[in-house]
Amino acid sequence: MDLDVFVTAHRAEWDRLDHLLRRGRHLTGAEADELVALYQRTATHLSLIQSSAPDPLLTARLTQLIARARATVTGTRRASWRDAAEFLTSGFPAAVYRSRHWWIPTAILSTLVAALIGWWIGSHPEVQSALGAPASLREMTRPGGQYETYYSSHPAASFSAQVWTNNAQAAAVCLVLGAFLGIPVLFILFANMLNLGIGIGLMASAGRLDVFLGLVLPHGLLELTAVFVAAGTGLRLGWTVIDPGPTTRRAALAQQGRAAIGMAIGLALVLFVSGLIEGFVTPSGLPTWARISLGVAAELAFLLYVYVLGGRAARAGDTGDVAEPDRTAELPTAA
Questions:
Q1: CB of 21 within 8 A of CB of 39?
Q2: Which of 28, 232, 252, 335 could be stapled to 244 by a disulfide with Cβ–Cβ 3.0 to 4.6 Å?
Q3: What's the CA gap between 173 and 238, in Å, rounded?
Q4: What phi and psi, each to the nearest 5 degrees, are found at residue 329?
Q5: Are 65 and 42 in contact (CB under 8 A)?
Q6: pLDDT at position 293, please?
Q7: Can you give the pLDDT at residue 99?
Q8: How would you write the chain as a 3-class SS string?
């Protein structure tokens, strides 16, 4: 393509688009239609230039022109309470539902890993000795020891806030670092399962596994589910780098990344609930069966939320991505 000939042929259209944009709101109906048509044609021109005869100065000018035109055509929209309601009743549960083929296997395999680590530690005294001195291990696992007093060592409100912050950060890191082929997600997930497995193994070796599970299950069911969702979504994002599907890798990553950011917000709310349970229910004087029942109820409520609301929204076409007007414009690709 002869760039000089192309610029000469279309310069008048670009200048006309710039003129209409400078007029802002003072456009007639015909001029508004003309602006939309010029915006679309200029976007195509930019795509042709980028693919055939890239020129930095011309590309910068047309990119800025298209950005201004898009802002004028689509307008600006402020977030509202309706957006938040739609996110909580449709977007977030739909995103979790659509990624279930990643986080459910992640949950099953991770639980098996934690159980195997617990069995290995609990049945091998030499492994326990490598973890700490016998006196230290007895102090951790005895009645009233560190495992039991951990959940009541700080005021409930501050403890809940600390737990929520730490877990929300871990979930966000899984979602963000998933783009690095999912490798950091595997390390974070293994570290969590290792800590859980050590607790299972040490308390089982002391004959107090029932006490440990009675302390972990009330909040752990919902908390670990949120971690598994974050890890599974992060791994899905990493796989998108390898196999973007029918779209371009950039477009696929943009879509999955926007959905992941939304899921980070939604999972922070889920972890806030689990943090409240961990801070106020787990160390409470309620019977073990009552505490576990509350944890099971919270877990079932979340799963129903995902499979009922999320399944319905996903079947209706909701992907958890932001609304189309809020997305970055994708330029048409030249054939």
A1: no
A2: 252
A3: 13
A4: -65, 135
A5: yes
A6: 95
A7: 92
A8: CCHHHHHHHHHHHHHHHHHHHHHCCCCCHHHHHHHHHHHHHHHHHHHHHHHHCCCHHHHHHHHHHHHHHHHHHHCCCCCCHHHHHHHHHHHHHHHHHHCHHHHHHHHHHHHHHHHHHHHHHHCCHHHHHHHCCHHHHHHHHCCCCHHHHHHHCCCHHHHHHHHHHHHHHHHHHHHHHCCCCCHHHHHHHHHHHHHHHHHHHHHHHCCCHHHHHHHHHHHHHHHHHHHHHHHHHHHHHHHHHHCCCCCCHHHHHHHHHHHHHHHHHHHHHHHHHHHHHHHHHCCCCCCHHHHHHHHHHHHHHHHHHHHHHHHHHHHCCCCCCCCHHHCCCCCCCCC
Round to whole Å and give the CA distance between 66 and 61. 9
Residues 82-95 have pLDDT tens digits of: 777 888 898 899 99
Q: How confident is the model at residue 3 (pLDDT cuts 50, 70, 90)?
A: confident
- Which amino acid is it at 264? A
- Asked whether the predicted pLDDT for residue 279 surpasses 80, the reply is yes
pLDDT tops 90 at residue 287: yes
pLDDT at 197: 94
Which residue type, as a one-letter code, is found at position 69? Answer: A
- Rounded Cα–Cα distance for residues 287 and 299 (Å): 19
Listed residue (246, 264, 244) closest to 254, CA to CA: 244
Of residues 167, 184, 328, 165, the one with CA closest to residue 257: 328
Residue whose structure tokens are 């800590």: 195
The residue assigned the tokens 């959905």 is: 259
Q: Which one is predicted more confidently, 81 or 7? A: 7
- Pair 70, 32: CB distance under 8 Å: no
